[in-house]
Design a protein that fits this description.
165 residues; mainly alpha; two-stranded antiparallel sheet; 2 strands
């Protein structure tokens, strides 16, 4: 894995997130907060969880702190616009962090302790890939919610991203 590969994967990650956010703009405020069968309840809850996780991982990787994990709550975003703005800010922060990395950095070891006290060691690029994979999981849940509301975001596959480039 090299930094150019990571940047391409993150380009796709943010392209797919934008597809979800664009489709989400079409739901009404009640649909945004309506509970669903998905793991984080509402569409808003799902999007906030994905944002919180990405931000938390970036803070761990960039600043070696776990304090920002689970810092965001659904109620922190009373409107879709506030949530969308936070996604834009996180994308900017992540892209700035990624731009600071080299190929050699990607094979470095990240050490941290979980909330449960478990010590972990991970290769940096594994963590970066995990962030995208985790986002993919929750974007698929958001896509299912949106499709149920009649606002499918369309295909979110890597090949669809490549086709648009």
């Amino acid at each position: 894995m090299n930094i150019q590969d990571i940047l391409t994967i993150y380009d796709c990650n943010y392209w797919a997130t934008r597809q979800i956010l664009v489709a989400s703009m079409h739901v009404n405020p009640e649909q945004l907060i309506t509970s669903t069968v998905h793991s984080f309840g509402s569409l808003r809850g799902t999007l906030v969880h994905a944002l919180d996780s990405e931000s938390g991982w970036r803070m761990l990787l960039q600043h070696n702190t776990l304090s920002s994990f689970h810092a965001l709550r659904e109620d922190d975003f009373p409107t879709f616009d506030s949530l969308e703005q936070s996604w834009k800010e996180e994308e900017h922060a992540m892209r700035k962090y990624l731009a600071s990395l080299t190929d050699d950095d990607l094979v470095g070891i990240v050490r941290y302790t979980t909330d449960e006290g478990d010590k972990r060691e991970r290769v940096l690029w594994h963590c970066l890939l995990h962030i995208v994979n985790h986002g993919t999981h929750h974007r698929s849940e958001a896509a299912a919610i949106l499709t149920g509301y009649g606002h499918s975001p369309g295909g979110l596959d890597f090949t669809a991203f490549l086709n648009e480039q």
